[in-house]
Amino acid sequence: xxxxxxxxxxVAELANLALTEDEIVRMTQDLDGILGHMDKLNELxxxxxxxxxxxxxxxEETATLRADVERxxxxxxxxxxxxxxxxxxxxxVPRVIEK
Amino acid sequence: xxxxxxxxxxxxxxxxxxxxAREALxxxxxxxxxxxxxxxxxPERALASAQAVDRKIAAGEDLGPxxxxxxAIKDVIVTRGLRTTCxxxxxxxxxxxxxxxxxIRIEQAGGVLIGKTNCDEFAMxxxxxxxxxxPVRNPVALDRVPGxxxxxxxxxxxxxxxxxxxxxxxxxxxxxxxxxxxxxxVTPTYGRVSRYxxxxxxxxxxxxxxxxxxxxDSARLLQVMAGRDEMDxxxxxxxxxxxxxxxDGDIRGLKIGVxxxxxxxxxxxxxDLIQAAIGKLRKLGxxxxxxxxxxxxxxxxxxxxxATAEASANLARYDGVRYTTRSSAAGTLQEMYRQTRDExxxxxxxxxxxxxxxxxxxxxxxAYYLKxxxxxALVAQDYAQxxxxxxxxxxxxxxxxxxxxxxxxxxxxxxxxSDIYTVTGDLxxxxxxxxxxxKTAEGLPVxxxxxxxxxxxxxxxxxxxxFERVSS
Lengths: 99, 472
Hints:
The complex is a heterodimer of chains A (99) and B (472). Chain A is mostly helical and 99 residues long. Chain A has helices at residues 5-14, 21-38, 76-80; strands at residues 86-87, 90-91. Chain B has helices at 3-11, 17-35, 43-59, 101-108, 151-159, 175-181, 215-225, 268-283, 299-314, 333-344, 347-360, 366-387, 412-417, 420-428, 457-471, and strands at residues 38-41, 70-74, 112-117, 164-169, 184-187, 207-212, 255-259, 287-291, 392-396, 432-439, 445-452. In chain B, helix 12 packs across helix 14.
C-alpha cells in the first residue's frame, strides 16, 4: 500500500475536506492506485535535471510591468454580491474569537 | 454556417444578425434536451450584440471579424452578470462581476454570445460525466460521452447549435472532446490567449482555445483572442501573425514527425485512421519522419502530480465565504470550511484536491512534486529536440473513440491513463489541435492531433487545413 487510511484522514484535514467513512475507504483505494502509477517516475534519473515550473519564453525583464496609474477597483457592493453571508460591507464568517 | 458565410449573408442583407441570433437560440434551446450541452442561455445579451452588429451594417461601418457569429462559452470562463457554474454545485448561483478577456475580445469582434456550455466540474475529467448538472451526451452517438472536460463546447459544434465555441485545456480538455465529437479543437501555445477570467484549475497548464467546424474558423477565432493582456502576467507579448492568410492548402516540403511512442496501446480502428491520415499528408508532399518522444510513458504520472498540486491550491478559495455557497450545517469556522467543501465538491474534485494536497505535503514534496517538475523538463526537452528536425508532429488524440456513458467512471487510474497523447503537449506548452480524421466502422469520429513548436500556430493550422481539404 502506498497510502493508509490514517494518512488519508490527515490529508483530508489539511485539505479542509470533511470526508465520510465511506469516502475515506474509497479515497484510500483510488489514491493508492494512482500513486502506484506515479512511482513509475522513479525509473528516471533526474539528478542532473533542472525542475520546470512554468513554460518560459524570451521576454524583456519589464514585460510584465505596467504603468503605475490609478484605476477603478471593483466596488464594495460588487465584491460582496456573491458572498455567502455579508453585512456592514464585510464578508461574515462564524465567530472565531470567544469572549 | 461558417464565419465567412455569415458575413457574406449579412453584407448581402439576406439576413440580419438579430435573425441569426434568434434562430440560433431557438434551435439551441430546442435541441438541448438531447445532449444537455448548454447550462445557461443568454438571450438578452445575444440580442443586444446582434442588434449592435445590425446597426453597424445599417450605418455602413466596418464589421468585426466575428460579426453576427453565434458563440458558446465553456462555463469555467466568467461572463459578467451571466451565471458561471464551472459545472459545480458550489457555484450554482455564482454571477461573476467581470468578463474574461477572451470574452471581451470575442464580443468586441462582433461575436454573439448565446450561452454557456456544460463541462466537467472545474474542468476535471475526460468524459464530462463529472458535471454536477448531469453529463453531456455525444451528438454523434447519444449513448456515448462527448469527451471532457470541454464536452459541452465540442457537442454544440457537432450538433450545429453554435458556429463557434471556446473551451479550456489543461491536459487535453479541448482536443479529446473535439476528437470524440468530430469537430476541430485547438490548444494554443501556453500564454497565447489570456487566462484572465478562466477559473483556475492548474495555472501552469491552463489554456483557453477555440472549437469550430473548420480549421479556418478556429484560426480566425484564435486570432481574435490571442495577444498580450495586462490582466494576465503570463500572457505572451509575441506578435500574433495572420493565421488565416497562411492557409493556402500547400504544405509541400514540410517535414512531419510521427512519434512511435504515440502508437502503443492504440485501438485498431483509431490506429488505421491515423495511418491513413499520415498517408494523405505524404500525398500532399510532406516528408514523413519517424521520431521519438522517449518520455511519453512518464507524462501521465508527471501531469497528474503537477495538475492536482496546483488544483489543490487553486480550489482552496471555495471555502463558504466569497463564492455563494455555505453549508447550513456550519458551526465553527473550521467546520464551515469543511462541510461546505464536502457538500459542494463532487467525487473527482475531492480526489484531485486530496492527491494534490498529498503530493505537496511535508515529506512527500521532493518525491512527487519536485520529481514531476524535473520530468516535465524532460518531456519539454523531447519536443525541443523533435522540433529541431521537423516542422510539425502528428499522431492520435486519444487511444480510443468515444466510449459509453458510465463505462469508465469506476476506474480513475484508467481514465487518467487515457490522457496519454494529450498531456505531453500541455506539459511542454506547445500548440496542438485535433482535426477530424474520419470515422470508425461503428461511425465514431477520430481526431488527428497536429502539434507544432511554441508560437508556431501557423504551421499547425496549415497542416490541419491542408489535411481537412483532402479528407472532407
